[in-house]
Amino acid sequence: VKGRASWRGRKVLVTSGATREHLDPVRFLSNASSGRMGHALAAAARARGARVTLVTGAAEVPPPKGVRVVPVGSAREMLAACLKALPGMDAVVAAAAVGDFRPASPSARKIKKTGKPLTLKLVPNPDVIAAISARKKKGRPLTVGFALETHDLLDNAREKLAKKNLDLVVANGPESLRGETTKAMLLAKNGGVAFYTGAKTGLAERIFDVLGESL
Ligand code: CTP
Questions:
Q1: Which residues of the chain have pLDDT under 50?
Q2: Best substitution site from 160, 164, 211 to test ligand 1's pocket, by max atoms within 8 Å of Cβ?
């Protein structure tokens, strides 16, 4: 396969895992991402001979061997780490589940209970993959995003592809979040559509096969 050989020596950035947005020093808002998809992507790119940087939030599985790992906490830390690693990247694959919101004013001290209701004000986080796509020069790096949809999969995926200026969007359902297997639709900028059902490791291979055709 042409797409397979073309990754040797290429630079690939993968985001993975769940971000954490602190309310106070001991509490945070996060999500159920396991990090499996991102880590499978990093391993697949590495196995093809790419130089891989994995910017990862919290994950249940260890990162693969042979990749540069940059651990991060919040969405803003993830963005900063990605922008720092970005120069020279050929492709960026965003598998992280990034929190869309963070507490507006996190407390420096542990929040004490008072018996009264507590209202949290949340403010929007930056979109990491959209910020990376906005920095494309001559179409590089290629960017891939995931779309977790419960309805109107194709329409929502198309919209995400355009809005975030992606080269490929991988759309799946919420059942994909934690398990080792997944059911996904791959939608490319050039209009190509493919379907995949199986292990996340196989989906990772498929993503680099498809993306390799555009390198
Ligand atoms: N993403 C990101 N930074 C964010 C949010 C999402 O980089 N702040 C990336 C994710 O890594 C993923 C894709 O964007 O690749 C998911 O997009 P998002 O719009 O968050 O998808 P959903 O949560 O599925 O969308 P929505 O909230 O529109 O339903």
A1: none
A2: 160
Residue given tokens 């008072």 in the structure block: 114
* Residue entry with tokens 């020093």: 25
Sheet containing strand 193-199, strands side by side: 68-71, 51-56, 11-16, 91-94, 142-148, 168-172, 181-188, 193-199
Q: What tens digit of pLDDT does each residue of 149-178 get?
A: 888 988 999 999 999 999 999 998 877 777
Q: Tokens 């004000």 correspond to what residue?
A: 121
Contact partners, residue 172, CB within 8 Å, separation at least 6: 146, 147, 148, 149, 182, 183, 184, 185
Is 133 close to ligand 1, i.e. is its CB under 6 Å away?
Answer: no
pLDDT at 2: 58
Which one of the listed residues 31, 156, 165, 190 is annotated catalytic?
31
Q: How far is the CA of 107 from the centre of ligand 1 (A)?
A: 26
Q: Annotated catalytic, 125?
A: no
Q: What is the pLDDT of residues 128-156, one digit of tens each?
A: 999 999 999 999 999 999 998 888 988 99
Closest C-alpha residue for ligand 1 atom 8: 127
Q: According to the model, what pLDDT value does residue 75 have?
A: 98
Report whether 72 contacts 57 (CB < 8 A): yes
